[in-house]
Amino acid sequence: MVVQSFKELICGLPAASSGVHLDIGGDLIRLLLNSGATLSGNVVVLADPATRTRPEEPCVSEWQTENLFDVAHLLETIQKISSSRGLASISILQVERWPDIEHLLRGLRDFLIPGTCPIILGTRNLARRDVAVKLLLGCHEPPLEPGVYAPRFTRRTFDALLNDVGLLPSQELDILKSGALTRDESLHPALATNTPLGALLASLRNQADPHAETELFIRTCFPGTTSARVSGKAGDLRPFLSVVMRTQGQRPDCLRDVLLSLAAQSDDDFELIVTGHRVGDEEKRVIDKLLAATPTRLRERTRYLQVNTGSRATPLNAGFEAARGQYIAMLDDDDLVFGHWVETFHDLARTHAGQMLRVVCVAQSTEQIPAVAGGSVARAAGTFERRYSERFDMFQHLASNHTPCMAIAYPRAIFHDLGLRFDDRLHTTEDWDFMMRAALICGVASSPEITAIYRIWSNRTNSQTLHDQELWKTNEVFIKKRLDLSPVLLEPGMLGKIRELVQDSEQLAAITRSLSVRVPGAIGTAHAREVTLLSRFLPDRGIRILRDTVRRLRGNRISADDVRLLENTQLFDADWYLSTYPDVAESGMDPVLHYLRHGAPEGRNPGPLFNGTWYLEQHPDVARSGINPLTHYLKHGIGEGRRIKPLEAHVE
Known about the structure:
Layout: H1 7-10, E1 20-24, H2 27-34, E2 43-47, E3 60-64, H3 71-85, E4 87-92, H4 101-112, E5 119-124, H5 129-137, H6 155-165, E6 167-176, H7 183-186, H8 196-208, E7 214-223, H9 234-237, E8 241-247, H10 252-263, E9 270-277, H11 281-292, H12 296-299, E10 302-307, H13 313-322, E11 327-330, E12 336-337, H14 341-351, E13 356-370, E14 376-380, H15 394-399, E15 408-411, H16 413-416, H17 430-442, E16 444-457, H18 463-466, H19 469-485, H20 494-514, H21 528-537, H22 542-553, H23 560-567, H24 574-580, H25 582-587, H26 591-599, H27 612-618, H28 620-625, H29 629-640
Parallel strand pairs: 1-2, 1-4, 2-3, 4-5, 8-9, 8-11, 9-10, 13-16
Antiparallel strand pairs: 5-7, 6-7, 11-15, 12-16, 13-14, 13-15
Helix pairs in contact: 3-4, 4-6, 10-11
């Protein structure tokens, strides 16, 4: 082992006039002497015949006891040494050697309370990466080195032990594992970090805490008071769900709405943690007033956290850290959840424990309008839009985010045990980044239930308007690059999807080669073989892929007449289109071109006065033709007397 710094330990050893340092078991003195340290002062090593250290240093003497591990006898011996020599400090460097270490430490605390004698305690790290991997695989062997005992504690359990027995750490010194892996270890695919398995395990372990390579935890402690620990299993006291809602207090009307929707939940097994981010005094008073007005059953389960620094990710990390729930969900203060939101998550968890839980949201265009009594209120400016699929598609999400933050509940272990954190460097897309890293670890269970509304603001400040498109693109590139460099797990079935994608690509390449470069407006009988072949291989996506292929082979040509047609009609509203579909604004693409190339095939509407979905439903011949619904109406529908409806008049 290599000690990072011995000064903290050596300077703490007493001078001859102030009593002796008592090293119980001799492990600390062995460590110091083996590392070339020079000792000063008087040191007494307390050992039994089986564990004698035989120190050769002139300042080190030995006191033998018949049974070092009989706690009552050991405490009596320490009393004798204290009476005859005086004690300045005590050390026990391998606390795992004592089966009843809690009894021993409580006895030492009671003995040390009258004075100021510090005690140096150490333990070997049970969660060191190589040890943890061997334990996981069932191939860990007990230490063969004399005087070295199998570890029993992690950093967390060691600190909890000290807290329970009333010893307060004043100084920490951790010792790293010395040397590389042995030859046999370096050949093991789970320990070598250049293998997929080894890289994945190392990534998970390093992410959990910064002590994957720590050999020994050492603490200098002083007597304190014991902390009362809640009896029973921690999980028994946890609510099912912790709802973390960040707010800046600038949308009180929306905050009131979302609190009302939480108060109406059919399943009240949840707590609410409101994280105020950079909230001013006036906004804080508004938040307090709104929280105080909630029903008692919700108010009693609500906590408020003030966060004054950091990016959008910072209040999320603070809220997740404070969360007590078995699962944790995010909720922004301008979104809405239906009454069965928590219930749907809870039902899903009963059959998919440990996975992320996903429900479905609908999008709705929303605007801010003046309220009669002053202030402002939110008003729906469009119908519900089914933008988000019923099931989580990993491949789709690797390209861009298709799940609003309130549609996901995370198992608490992903944050509290595996160490995932929202990245404070990200000022946008922080939820997508966290969601993808979590999904690649624990998978996603989906419910088709629609349980929430994702509001898309047409005239109100939001993350889309606060940050320029260049920042959105930069963050997206950063997230994708990190995912590309990370070792990942593949869920069952994902290899089949990858195989399908490869086959689709190969088949599409074959069809592309067989079609002429200049494709006429309609696919003629000469290409019937390709259509049949594509449909056989891709029965659910064949026609769409073929249509996309034809469009690409045309060079994505769009008729100039179609462009002029849309630019000169009130049925296409460019400003509405960009505000309703922020991903289009992010792309920087001309809204008319986007609608003609992508928007209509994806079911997007050109403006509030023309409901393309309704038009295709009412006129199936147009839907079968694959023609853009708005251009069809402008070119043919008007003359044919076909009806249209605005979005507000359409009821889905």
